[in-house]
Batch of 4 targets.
Target 1
Amino acid sequence: MPAGAACRERNDIMPSVPAFNSKRESFHHDNSSCGLGTRIAPHNRLVGAAGKPLCKNCKKLNREGK
């Protein structure tokens, strides 16, 4: 693997936004393209992962580099 390739590969799966979660969900989000995450009302949105697992949609989008 060429020098820096691991970094480039890692950047492809980096979250597009800082982690956030909802008071009403049992998972967190970190991708601005996640439909579930975009529908969280501002008064329910909290900063951070809060120890919750990553949303399956976010995980898929991150893996696909979207």
Target 2
Amino acid sequence: MFKIKYDFHQVTPENREALKNDLLELLVVYSGGPRPILIQICVSIAALGMQLKSWTTVVLDVAAVCQTAGNAEDALLQFLAVLPEEVCDHRRMILTV
């Protein structure tokens, strides 16, 4: 999470899409818990959504991934719970293009 927030410029443009896909996969894998890991994944996805300007469908993508996973409603709700906090916290991030 901190790497995405503060050192995102170190992630090469070629690896950003892979990072997004990996985080969405992890969201499905840990949708049933443990809860602390699920929360960190949700925070990381929200932070990545703030940094990755080309990703304009963050909420829709998370909802779609959770829907295809079947029983990942808790993961979707957790993501929606942390999203406003990350949006408000974006002032402390180093935003990249």
Target 3
Amino acid sequence: MSDPVIATQPATAYALERLEFITSGHMSETLDRACQPTHPTIYCIGLHVDPQSQGLGVGTTMVRWATEFADSRNAAAWAHLSDSTAGIKACEKNGFEEVNTVTVDLDEYATKDTNKRWGIYTHHCMYRPPHA
């Protein structure tokens, strides 16, 4: 796994713009590093399993379908995941390797007029090379 992406933004930027800069910049940086321009790539973003169906292999099956789809096109696969142990395991079972992470303290970007805490959020970037 490579070193985490460190993104900086001028302090004058609005909080949400800074957060957007960090998360979008991280995704862009990882894509540039992980994806080879010689291969088509599919993106697995936003896969979620209903809590009542978790632990039944649904996530692994969805990821397997995506990798079979990629394989049929000799494409690489890239996944951008939240800090989900089950999601990471489902990707690893299907040949993905973690290539980067970015951790953000969301409370630094939340408005200060609320007592609600958002906590720490970690994005995991995982890559699977083409399998013909």
Target 4
Amino acid sequence: MQLRGSHADRYRSLNTTGETQWLPRESHNVTYITRLQALQAAVDHQLEQLSKEHPTRRAALISFNNEVSIISQIYSV
């Protein structure tokens, strides 16, 4: 899975000596992601599933903050 906003390659280039960067008792097979990356991956997955299972349906996203925004393929308010 390709995560958006991953800076792992950029950080890896800073380790010029190739030393391990693990803390004691830290798992080596774990990928830590931000809540934003988790949300983006979930939305991407849901949109892919929707387009495969129901190709004629349209998707819309409603966001709530200090105002309500409706984002769809047809219009943006």
